[in-house]
Amino acid sequence: MVDIEFTTDRRLRLHLHGIDIETEVVPDVSARISFAATVAGRFPITVHGEHGGHGHGALMYVEVHPR
Questions:
Q1: Are the beta carbons of 12 and 39 closer than 8 angstroms?
Q2: 7-23 pLDDT per residue, tens
Q3: Residue 66 above 70 pLDDT?
Q4: What is the mean pLDDT of residues 18-45?
Q5: What angle do CA 7, 9, 11 make, to 5 degrees?
Q6: Any idea what the CATH number is for the domain that residue 34 is in?
Q7: Which residues span the domain enclosing 53?
Q8: Based on the structure, what is the number of domains in the chain?
């Protein structure tokens, strides 16, 4: 299991690509993305814009290695 916690100073919608999980993060409240790491790969987490677009590049990458 993977559990990532986020905090922010402004409202954001985060998207974990490849796993297809989205979450909204609001100021002063922590938010989580949790999932079972069953597929190997490198998955970017990006910010989705106010109009449905993606931000510039990834905030971070989650790497899942095969066993």
A1: no
A2: 999 999 999 999 999 99
A3: yes
A4: 94
A5: 85
A6: 2.60.40
A7: 2-64
A8: 1
